[in-house]
Amino acid sequence: MHRFLLRAGLLAMVLLSGAVSAQESGPLLTVKQLMNALLTPATNTIWGAYQLETQAQWQEVENAALTVIATAELLAAGGALEAEQASAAEADWQAWNNDMIAAARQVLSAVQEQDEQALSEAGNNALYPPCESCHQQYQQR
Which domain holds residue 14? Predict the structure, then answer.
């Protein structure tokens, strides 16, 4: 898992460092690529976090929350496909994306306090709903 987070972080840095050129040409990756490479593994880390005993375990959850935020920043523009960019312009997409960022910030707060109950609530009550709602509306397209 540690190698995944390192790779995800490097991928996010590469993507963010290319943001200027991406603004000129549009997103470089599809939504599915962003989901599979970054968002799904990060959210699974958050949802699977319990009985955290070491600083390294808490750091892994923190890295996952940061990955969610970085990926959401990329998803705000949609993906490389024209239809994905059109979907990203919709109010529902933007609202759920913003809710996902807010939930990841709640996860960061729980990590800072090393509060597993707050972490569970952030993951289940704040992060899961926008993810599920977005999937129900957009995954079928």
Answer: 2-138
